[in-house]
């Protein structure tokens, strides 16, 4: 009985008075695997929980004719420790997001305007693909390769929510062609012609 009373007491202490409602990120501290250190609660203000700027379209003048505007814990300290984040995706006509993944994070993708063809590949190599219209929502499960294309006749806009307060994006094309990985290795692992590999390295800024 005494043991149960002690257990109940510790459970109460850790679930109430010692619990933190939030952990607003202190951007002056290093970011570790668990995020930023918590800002002193006495210094937290309402603006720490507000982000403005997602009404501004991103510049799509680039190779893919698309751009993502991230709202991670670095841009929005209120996200720190909550396991969520957000991004705005602008896609010009014909724009696309190459095959990529977000390690450790699932993605909820909401089309706000335009027509976007999107899909992902499962670990058994099954392809799930769909043309999405305004108001449609698609989920990309954690760690799976996925992509988006603007297949409409006007610019497209979407918002993506992630299950991490800050997430990386690993683009397959960059992993292959935006570095100094030797051509002979890429030839054997991708079955591409060496001249094509050199051309793609030139496009993505890699060397050989």
TrEMBL record:
Subcellular location: Secreted, Extracellular space, Apoplast
SMART domains named among the record's database cross-references: Cupin_1
Keywords annotated in UniProt: Apoplast, Disulfide bond, Glycoprotein, Manganese, Metal-binding, Secreted, Signal
Pfam families registered for this protein in UniProt: Cupin_1 (PF00190)
Tagged with keyword Nucleus: no
Annotated ranges, domain Cupin type-1: 52-198
InterPro entries, A to Z: Cupin_1 (IPR006045), Germin (IPR001929), Germin_Mn-BS (IPR019780), RmlC-like_jellyroll (IPR014710), RmlC_Cupin_sf (IPR011051)
Residues annotated as signal peptide: 1-19
Origin superkingdom: Eukaryota
Family the UniProt entry places it in: Belongs to the germin family.
Protein name: Germin-like protein
Organism per entry: Hibiscus sabdariffa
């Amino acid at each position: 009985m005494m043991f149960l009373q002690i257990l109940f007491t510790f459970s109460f202490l850790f679930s109430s008075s010692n619990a933190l409602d939030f952990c607003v990120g202190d951007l002056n501290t290093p970011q570790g695997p668990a995020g930023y250190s918590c800002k002193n609660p006495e210094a937290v203000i309402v603006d720490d929980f507000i982000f403005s700027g997602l009404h501004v379209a991103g510049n799509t003048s680039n190779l893919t004719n698309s751009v993502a505007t991230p709202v991670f814990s670095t841009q929005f300290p209120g996200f720190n420790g909550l396991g969520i984040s957000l991004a705005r995706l602008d896609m010009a006509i014909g724009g696309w997001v190459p095959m990529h993944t977000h390690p450790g994070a699932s993605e909820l993708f909401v089309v706000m305007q335009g027509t976007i063809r999107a899909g992902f590949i499962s670990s058994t190599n099954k392809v799930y693909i769909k043309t999405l219209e305004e108001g449609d929502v698609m989920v990309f499960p954690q760690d799976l390769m996925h992509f988006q294309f603007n297949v409409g006749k006007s610019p497209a806009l979407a918002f993506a929510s992630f299950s991490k307060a800050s997430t990386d994006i690993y683009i397959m094309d960059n992993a292959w062609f935006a570095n100094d990985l030797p051509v002979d290795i890429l030839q054997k692992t991708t079955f591409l012609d060496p001249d094509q590999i050199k051309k793609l390295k030139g496009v993505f800024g890699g060397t050989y």
